[in-house]
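[step 3/7] fold_predict: job queued, chain A
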Amino acid sequence: MPTKKPGGLVYLVDDDFAIRDSLSLFIESTGQAVKSFESAEQFLQAYDQEQPGCLLLDVRMPVMSGLDLQDVLLKNNIDIPIIFISGHAEVSDSAKAFRAGAVDFIEKPFDNLVLLERIEEALNKDIDARTEYAEKLKLIHSIDQLTLREKEILHLIVNNCSSKEVASVLGISSRTVEVHRAHIMEKTHSESITQLLIMIVRYDVVTHLAIRQPPTSDNGH
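[step 4/7] structure written:
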C-alpha cells in the first residue's frame, strides 16, 4: 500500500451505489480525499479544473457512459488522468479508452492495493503536469519581458548562432551581445544560456521568440 499520499482529489463516478460507497470508504480509509458521483453529468457540474486530481470512472453507465464522458472532457481540453473500471470489459472499450489517453483500465473485481497504486500514479501524473505547465507559463512570462533586441539575440542563439555570428547578423559588437545575454539570463532566472535553451525546447516556447518586425541596428547598444 502506498505510504505517502499525493495531494489532489479522487473523483469517483459509478452508477452502482454499493460499489461507489465501498470504494469511497476504502480510498478515504487510506487518507486520500474522494468525491463520488452517480452520473457523468453530476461530475461535470461539480468538477473544479483548478483542483489537482484523477478520475476513477465506470465504463457502462446510463445516459452518458464513461467513454462518452472521456470524449466530453477531451473536447473541452480537460486533461484529468482517467482510470476506467468495468465489470463488463470489452477489448474495443479498453482500446478506445487508451487511445484517448486513459491511464489504466481495470476490470471488476479488482485488487484494491493495485487500484491504490494506480490512483497514486494518476494523482502524481496530474500534479507533475500542473507543475510543468506552471513552469512553462513562468518561462513564457519571462520571455515576454525581454526587449525586442534581447528576443532577436535569443532567437538567433536558439538557432545555434554563436555570439560572434549574432553580432555579425545584427551589426553590433560581440561585447554588446554578451551584455544582452547576461540580461536575458537575469530576466529568465537562468543559470546559463544552455539551461535556458533546454527549457525553451522542453516547453516548446520557440514561437514566443518570433520577431514581429525586421531587426534594426542599435549602433552597438
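[step 5/7] annotate
The longest helix spans residues 112-144.
Residues 145-209 form a domain with the Arc Repressor Mutant, subunit A fold (CATH 1.10.10.10).
exit 0
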